[in-house]
Amino acid sequence: MKKQGVKKTMLIILCSLGTVILAAFLFLLLISGIFLPRHYLEPWNKNYALKFDDPRIQLAAYGLLAANGHNMQPWKIRLDKSDPRIFYLYADSRRMTNEVDPYARQMMVSQGTFLAYMQVAGEKIGYRTDISLFPDGAYDEKNLSTSMDTKPVAKITLGKTGPQQSPLYSALFVPDTNRGPYKADRLTAAQTGRLESLSEPDVSVKVYQDQADVARLNDYAMKSAVVESGVKRVMDESAAIFRANEYQKNKYRYGFSVEGQGTSGIMVHLLQGLVTLFPSMNSGKAASDLFVKSTQASVDSTPAYIMIQTKDNRRESQVKSGLIYSRLILEAGHLGLAVQPLSQALEEYPEMKKLYNGIHRDYAADGSTIQMLVRIGKPDQNVPQTMRRDVTDLIMKN
Questions:
Q1: Of 78, 92, 156, residue with least CA distance to 122
Q2: Half-sphere exposure (Cβ direction) of 233: Cα atoms closer than 13 Å
């Protein structure tokens, strides 16, 4: 009888424990916002752009999917009121990341990525996009924010051509960055040739996959990640735009989230629930350690790197490098490859100066500027799509 009583008590305890675990599991899912509609993913729908009658807004809706620094989506669009063929792209000064990008170089690269996505989409829906960079003149670098607000990065003029086949169009809807593991396979000569053919007279694209180069660039990637992880103001800047759950992702629709850390499936919601309850999990030392750990995982499965370099570091060159980078992303996707920027060594805040000078000494001794350092390879898995703003939020009111 005593044994039966003990068994019964143990069964009650186990059932109670199971109930508590199940309740905790469901609680984490609820505070993660698992049942909320994910409005921040609507722009990824292939029919999203077609909701708008104005082809300029349609093209901006495609541009919105482009790669951009810190997922800040720093774009504004002004529609020409007198000519329905013309619109202007502005850099959104409110979305600068001054700590990690003090000279707004990455922000200018992000302007180019947007323009390239619009070009590819234009081919598909039947418009030629003629782009004129800085049509109202160069920025006043001493008053950069004001210049961004008043001088467009680009004037875009549309010409009707009729829909055309675009082999890169479907790649617009694939996330631009895959932080997961890549297979060890080297890029083929055909793949290398296709990617390097994206080069232009003032912008070069070069693949590095020799063992010595990969090892050296892995070293730069890891050392720069360690440096960045130790600069509190830079890490705090990233932490400020981390969206912990579905409520925040729907509210802001830009910045970082747990998906960007390689999490997928139900684990997204469990982790979001935990981070919502315990914000310290994704800040301070925990965030720094996670950043270094994730970079290590990336370099451990990197078969090749690509560099994009420009002959100088003018604003036009920065934008042009972004145009080429988007083309690179789309071509890579078309070839069954994926990319991830590991460009921390190219950042220009003081603590990174030694590594910045080192990588330029090793790979840009001719005085050119390395605009992007990107790992590339065949991915083991797909990754989830990231937050995007509603395109109407980009349209300037006056």
A1: 156
A2: 9
Q: Are the C-beta atoms of 334 and 171 separated by less than 8 Å? A: yes
Q: Measure the CA–CA gap between 174 and 338, rounded to whole angstroms.
A: 10
Amino acid at 99: E
Q: What gap in Å lies between CA 12 and CA 5, rounded to an integer?
A: 11
* Domains in the chain with CATH codes: 40-172+387-394 (3.40.109), 178-377 (3.40.109.10)
Structure confidence by residue, pLDDT tens digits, 194-228: 999 999 999 999 999 999 999 999 999 999 999 99
Tell me the residue type at 47: N
Q: Tell me the three state secondary structure of residue 67.
A: coil
Residues 313-348 have pLDDT tens digits of: 999 999 999 999 999 999 999 999 999 999 999 999
Q: Are strands 75-79 and 86-91 parallel, antiparallel or unpaired?
A: antiparallel
Classify the C-alpha dihedral 205-123-335-381 as positive or negative. Answer: positive
Q: Measured between alpha carbons, how far apart are the two ends of the chain, in Å?
A: 84
Q: Report the residue count for the chain.
A: 398
The number of angstroms, rounded, from the C-alpha of 111 to the middle of its chain's C-alpha atoms is: 13
Residue 264: name the closest of 390, 377, 386, 173 by CA: 386
Q: CB-based contacts of 261: which residues, under 8 Å, 6+ apart?
A: 179, 290, 294
Distances (CA, A) of 398 to 77, 80, 122: 10, 10, 25
Alpha carbons within 13 angstroms on the beta-carbon side of residue 11 total: 6
Tokens linked to 45: 């729908």
What DSSP assignment string belongs to 164-208? ---TTGGGGGS-S---S-B-SPPPPHHHHHHHHTT-BTTEEEEEE
Across the chain, mean pLDDT equals 93
d(CA 205, CA 195): 7
**Under a CB-based contact definition with an 8 Å cutoff, are residues 231 and 279 in contact?**
no
